[in-house]
Design goal:
The protein has about 80 residues and is α+β, with helices and mostly antiparallel strands. Helix content is about 40%, strand content about 10%. The chain contains three helices and two strands. A two-stranded antiparallel sheet has the order 1-2. The longest helix is centred in the last third of the chain and has 13 residues, at about 60-75. The model has no long low-confidence stretch (mean pLDDT about 90). The protein binds zinc ion (ZN). Zinc ion (ZN) binds near residues 17 and 43. InterPro entries: HNH, HNH_nuc.
């Protein structure tokens, strides 16, 4: 898994479009990322309180935040969490 390095079971896995379809991203494998469902939630989250709750609950570290911000930027979301 690209962000946390945790082992994932199938039920915890989400598929994310690195470049979203509405911004021209394709469904091809090179645009898809396999993510933990909670990390996926974090990437698309816009509510600050929910963002900080998720960061605390998931034990997100600074290098992980940087990767998540890169994903958020690609989605056209405010990068800094
Ligand atoms: Zn996504």
């Amino acid at each position: 898994m690209r962000i946390t390095g945790m082992f994932l079971s199938a039920s915890e896995v989400h598929c994310h479009h690195y470049i979203p379809s509405h911004l021209g991203g394709s469904d091809k494998f090179n645009n898809l990322r396999i993510l933990h469902k909670e990390i996926h939630k974090l990437i698309h989250q816009t509510d600050t309180t929910t963002i900080y709750t998720l960061i605390n609950n998931l034990g997100i570290t600074e290098p992980m935040v940087q990767k998540i911000n890169q994903y958020r930027k690609q989605c056209g979301l405010e990068p800094s969490i």
